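Researcher: Next entry in the queue.
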Amino acid sequence: MATAASAAQLRDQFATWLREQGVSALQTNEILLAVYEALANCVDHAYADDLTPGTMALRADLEPAGGCLSICVTDHGTWRQPGPSRPRDRRGRGVALMHAMADHCTINGREDGTTVCLDYRCRN
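Model: Structure for this entry, 124 residues:
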């Protein structure tokens, strides 16, 4: 379910998995910041018009030989095009943060949901 509690639980489980894969502590923190932003966007935006939260999923693929990590967060809610930011906004910086934290970030908003993919070249 796309709730704050389940987003935190997914983040914590993913953190454990990253450590088990030997990803450095510094890069783990950077990755978790971007991943949690993607999860939080599912919670805050994907199902805003629904009475109950929908689903969200996190998938990660690590290629140890090449040191590449790909993480995708997917929901089946409604895509909302980000609006223009205003100087005094305290929110709305998540997409820029994900782009800044990942080596490559793609956001695919569709009628049937959104997928955010974050790609990293891991440094141990």
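Model: The longest strand covers residues 113-121.
Researcher: Noted, moving on.
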